[in-house]
Amino acid sequence: MTYGRSNLRLVFRRGAAYPVYLDPGRDGPLVEAVIGFYEEAAGLRMGDVEWEELRIILGNDRLFNAFRAVMGRFYKASKKCPSWARPEYLRSRVYLYVNEKYGGYAHPSHRNHILGGIGETLGVEGLEDALWCDLPEELVVERDRKPTPGEVVAAYNYETMDTVLSSSDTLEVWMREARSPGAAALARLTGRICRLKGLIYDASMDQGGLRIRVAGPGSIFGRSARYGSRLTYLGFKLLKTLIGIRGAWRLAADMRTSTGKQIHVLLATHTRTPYLGRVEPPEPKSIYDSSVEENIARILEATGIRVEREAEPLVLPAGLLYIPDLVARGPRGKAYIEIMGYWRREYAEKKLYKLAELVRAGTPIIVVADARHGEAVGKAGLKTPVYYYTVRQGKPILPYGSLVREIKRLTGLK
What we know:
Elements: E1 10-13, E2 16-19, H1 28-41, H2 51-58, H3 61-70, E3 75-78, H4 87-102, H5 111-122, H6 127-131, E4 140-143, H7 149-165, E5 168-175, H8 181-197, E6 200-206, E7 209-215, H9 217-221, H10 224-243, E8 249-256, E9 262-269, H11 290-302, E10 307-309, E11 314-315, E12 321-322, E13 326-330, E14 333-340, H12 345-360, E15 365-370, H13 374-380, E16 386-392, E17 395-397, H14 400-411
Parallel strand pairs: 14-15, 15-16
Antiparallel strand pairs: 1-2, 3-4, 5-7, 5-8, 6-7, 8-9, 10-13, 11-12, 13-14, 16-17
Helix pairs in contact: 1-2, 1-7, 7-10, 8-10
């Protein structure tokens, strides 16, 4: 859930934009006042709540609109309709009755008589309240639970990140200590989430550090808001990891405004991180079918070949990083196994480019690809063993005997 780009507060410095987050210490009294306002509003009709008072407390229209969205996590606007009520249907019956009996218009003095007659016909009481109980101003403010100031601050800051990332084409990460364990963990996390959620990324390592650039589906299809939850999920998980890493780092995004202008937004750095408390983002639906990889790994292990998942990233020529799906080790060396599940053309092209670089570098790699990628793999001309699979009754079918023999040849396993 976002609170809308028009309500986003940004500070511009040196060509970049910085979101204005809330701070538990600095903004604690303000947040407590907002919680107090909602506590007093609990049980009231939305139309009876003095929203202008909240606007005065916050002193800022953008902050007012953003808080209205954020506080919806803790205070819900609920319908209070009788169990039998179907407001839209009831209104249509009233309009039909007035059209038939009064030619489309009934004097206000006839109102009670009309509603009473319809109520008798339908066999219901309290028709007046039931007619309009689904309108916004008739909804009732209900407390889901009273939040602490820290929970509100964390929710606001998360929604701020979500608002930026849901309107962004790309997410960027930079770390100075490129060869640290933290950098390897960050690269593996990026690779795993991008594969599962259908995001495309490039990672490189040089003297300037580790750089990861993730292109969300919005940058390809031009619908970032529709797919932005995937970038938000990844960005949040990366930030949680970065906060525990020593050394310089930054997390940024290229956000598009409603006019199409692109703004480079620095979401967080090692010296400036938003308070997020225990907030967790909703996990978007996975695109990649990880069960294929799991089944292949399980079958290989049943033949005596032990495989590792999410091994250390490999550094390709020009500093590009590659994270192998599976690795088998033996006395002669390693065999890297790439499971190329079916996804869109952009995914296949990026994957095949990295695989070609690996092959040119002499990396012992085996490709297990969805048969639907056959044409693309053929055009790539990979000079490495490729085995195609199809899925039948949820299981990947491929020439396992040939695959096992090739792994044993490369690793020296018996």
